[in-house]
């Protein structure tokens, strides 16, 4: 299982939101590149970066910060937010992003996901962000009529490398992952699923290492890391021990 530390970008700074509300942004670092270096030193093997402004605007808005992260770390980076056409996908992949995450466009332009996955195998993921079971789009500002399972199944044969599933109601408020919904999605598709939204403590990491979660590819952690509720060394050591025992 991979534990992904999150770097959410707003106005060039590293922030955390509560339930996707841009008005409830806590700034944790004015230097996202330095934050990425810190995560790399701590031993994380993959970074999760989101251009929050881009998600609302429909195009990249924090490119300078993302490029600085890429310049300062060797750790692979997956990026979401404002990625809604093939030109943007290819530009980010050429700049060194390991995997792009397509969210809004996965709902509105599923053929884009299929084409991108065909052209760039292993480098395209789908972001499914759900509120009350329905998929939200445009930086979570609007809800679609699709539920998470329907959207996941839509890409079953598309060749996407992962689905990042976020329960918006839990995101940023440290109440634990929605394991029931996450595992339901993992059961419904053969695509690897990454859990997101609400990871609060080492107990959540321990939960992810239970046998019924073996089909999950990993989880994303944000606020719990930034405010010290989750000790990175402890979490990564726990995951390493579980891997050695497997």
TrEMBL record:
The keyword Ion transport does not apply. One of its GO terms (biological process) is L-tryptophan biosynthetic process. Pathway: Amino-acid biosynthesis; L-histidine biosynthesis; L-histidine from 5-phospho-alpha-D-ribose 1-diphosphate: step 4/9. It catalyses: 1-(5-phospho-beta-D-ribosyl)-5-[(5-phospho-beta-D-ribosylamino)methylideneamino]imidazole-4-carboxamide = 5-[(5-phospho-1-deoxy-D-ribulos-1-ylimino)methylamino]-1-(5-phospho-beta-D-ribosyl)imidazole-4-carboxamide. GO terms for molecular function: 1-(5-phosphoribosyl)-5-[(5-phosphoribosylamino)methylideneamino]imidazole-4-carboxamide isomerase activity. Its EC number is 5.3.1.16. The keyword Cytoplasm applies. Pfam families: His_biosynth. It comes from the Bacteria. One of its GO terms (cellular component) is cytoplasm. It is found in: Cytoplasm. Keywords: Amino-acid biosynthesis, Cytoplasm, Histidine biosynthesis, Isomerase. The active site is at residues 8, 129. Belongs to the HisA/HisF family. NCBIfam families: 1-(5-phosphoribosyl)-5-[(5-phosphoribosylamino)methylideneamino]imidazole-4-carboxamide isomerase. This is 1-(5-phosphoribosyl)-5-[(5-phosphoribosylamino)methylideneamino] imidazole-4-carboxamide isomerase. The lineage of its organism: Bacteria, Pseudomonadati, Pseudomonadota, Alphaproteobacteria, Hyphomicrobiales.
């Amino acid at each position: 299982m991979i534990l992904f530390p999150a770097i959410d970008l707003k106005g060039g700074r590293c922030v955390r939101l509560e339930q996707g509300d841009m008005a409830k942004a806590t700034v944790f670092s004015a230097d996202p590149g330095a934050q990425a270096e810190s995560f790399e030193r701590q031993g994380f093997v993959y970074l999760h970066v989101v251009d929050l402004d881009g998600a609302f605007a429909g195009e990249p808005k924090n490119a300078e910060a993302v490029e600085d992260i890429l310049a300062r770390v060797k750790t692979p980076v997956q990026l979401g937010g404002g990625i809604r056409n093939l030109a943007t996908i290819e530009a980010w992949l050429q700049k060194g992003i390991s995997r792009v995450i397509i969210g809004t466009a996965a709902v509105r332009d599923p053929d884009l996901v299929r084409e991108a996955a065909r052209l760039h195998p292993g480098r395209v993921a789908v972001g499914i962000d759900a509120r009350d079971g329905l998929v939200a789009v445009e930086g979570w500002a609007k809800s679609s009529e699709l539920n998470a399972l329907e959207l996941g199944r839509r890409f079953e044969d598309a060749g996407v490398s992962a689905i990042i599933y976020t329960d918006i109601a839990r995101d940023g408020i440290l109440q634990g992952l929605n394991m029931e919904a996450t595992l339901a999605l993992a059961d419904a598709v053969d695509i690897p699923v990454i859990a997101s939204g609400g990871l609060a403590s080492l107990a959540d990491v321990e939960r992810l290492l239970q046998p019924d979660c073996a089909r999950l590819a990993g989880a994303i952690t944000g606020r719990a890391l930034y405010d010290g509720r989750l000790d990175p060394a402890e979490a990564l050591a726990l995951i390493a021990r579980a891997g050695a025992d497997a």
